[in-house]
Amino acid sequence: MDIDYSNNPLHGLGLKQMLTEIVDYYGFEILYAYLNINCFKSNPGIESSVKFLKKTDWARQKVEAFYLYKFKSLPRASDEQFELPPRDRIIPPDQTPGEPAELSLEDAERLREKRARKAAEHDAGTARRSSPEKRKSNYAQPAVSSDTDPWAKWRK
C-alpha cells in the first residue's frame, strides 16, 4: 500500500526545525501555557527541549499536533485520522496550511480553566457510577487463619 504523506506539513521536517519555527513565532511562555510541558517552563532552550521531546513520545505528539492545528491552522482531522500520531496523519490535498493562529496567555488561561472544569465533571461522573460498597469490597482482605498463613511456620 502506497500512502502519500507529502501534504502533511510535518513530512520531511525535523523536530529541531519545527520547534525553532514555533518558538520564534510564539515563544516558550505561550508554548508552556498551551501545552503544559515543563521543558518549556524550567530552563527553556531549543536543544534541551528537542532532547526531551525525542525521548518522550506523548510530548512530541502534543507539540506536533500544536504545530499542525495552531501554527499551520489546519482544520481538525477526522476521528479516524486523529487516532494516529500527527506524523502519520494523511492531510487531504484540498487542505493547505494557513497563517499561524493568534494566541495569548489569557486565552490559554481560559482553555486551562475549561479543561479543569471538564476534568472535574468527568471525575464527579466517575464517582457517581461506582458505589462505595463495591469499592470497599474490592479492597477487603479476607481474614487469614494460621493454618493457611505461609509464614506461620517461620514465626514459630
Keywords:
mainly alpha; 54% helix; 0% strand; 156 residues; 8 helices
CA radius of gyration: 24 Å
- In quaternary terms, these chains amount to single chain
Q: For the record, give the distance between the C-alpha atoms at the N and C termini, rounded to a whole number.
A: 69 Å
Largest sheet: none
* Proportion of strand residues: under 5%
Helix proportion range:
40-55%
Average pLDDT: 82
Q: How many strand units?
A: 0
The best one-word shape is extended
Element string (H = helix, E = strand): HHHHHHHH
Please count the helical segments: 8
Descriptive account of the structure:
With 156 residues, this protein is mainly alpha-helical. The radius of gyration is 24 Å and the shape is extended.
What can be said about this structure in brief?
The chain is mainly alpha-helical and 156 residues long.
Produce the secondary structure layout.
Blueprint lengths: L14 H11 L2 H8 L10 H10 L1 H15 L7 H4 L22 H25 L2 H8 L12 H4 L1
Helix pairs in contact: 1-3, 1-4, 2-6, 3-4
